[in-house]
Design goal:
With 229 residues, the chain is of the alpha/beta class. The radius of gyration is 16 Å and the shape is globular. The protein is 41% helix and 14% strand.
Length: 229
């Protein structure tokens, strides 16, 4: 794939990894539209982004508003979902509120967004581009971990959706890339919505993970396993 000239939507562009992906894509000649959850966090989106947008995965109306805006005003050739939240603690202690938030942000929100953007990706293919969807699914979808049971479940669910959708969307010329990085130093663990993170060993840098994802885009990969990092 030639990234130059493509237009990507980076969900979570205000985050450490999403911001790094935004910068690396732009350096390769892509146009990037990046999202944040709030006006305050939108200020963290790198200045190289063409447009800064708001998206709250917990609010289905927010997803609909964004997709309506995009379909009426621009084109999209690729979507990278780099947004997510984590919660720690025993499965037996997970509250309904935390469960709902985890699934909304990690699973159901992204599914709603990607299915709503499907027609735009089909249009991209029809215009001669190579549309692609990338999701930062994570190593816990490969190997669910204790004290991360619910978080693992959300990532396993979105990973399964993408694996199946990839077979459907292949007919439309849309490539789906499931990415399973291990622990990355983005600060996510320190922002857990419940529980306290264990003492993780030093993780990978966001720069390294973003570079490997870009490599997968360029070389037309469909899966980037944790062992590939």
């Amino acid at each position: 794939m030639n990234i130059s000239g493509m237009r990507f939507l980076v969900v979570g562009g205000s985050g450490v990894l999403g911001g790094e992906l935004t910068k690396q894509l732009r350096a390769l000649g892509a146009d990037v539209l990046a999202t944040a959850t709030t006006n305050d966090s939108a200020g963290k989106i790198p200045a190289v982004a063409e447009v800064r947008l708001l998206l709250n995965y917990e609010d289905p109306q927010s997803i609909e508003t964004l997709t309506d805006y995009l379909s009426g005003s621009t084109t999209i050739d690729g979507v990278i979902n780099a947004s997510g939240v984590v919660a720690f603690g025993p499965a037996s202690e997970m509250t309904p509120e935390v469960l709902s938030k985890l699934f909304a942000i990690n699973t159901t929100g992204p599914i709603q967004l990607l299915t709503a953007l499907h027609p735009m990706l089909v249009a991209s293919k029809q215009s001669g581009k190579e549309p692609v969807v990338v999701n930062i699914t994570g190593v816990v979808a490969e190997q669910p971990l204790p004290n991360l049971a619910t978080y693992s479940a959300t990532k396993t669910a979105i990973g399964g959706f993408l694996e199946a959708a990839a077979r459907e969307w292949r007919r439309d010329g849309i490539r789906v890339v499931n990415v399973f990085p291990g622990h990355t130093e983005t600060g996510l663990a320190g922002r857990a919505i419940a529980g306290t993170a264990p003492q993780f060993p030093q993780g990978m840098t966001a720069e390294h993970v973003a570079e490997r994802i870009i490599k997968a885009l360029v070389e037309d990969e469909k899966t980037v396993a944790s062992s590939d990092f």
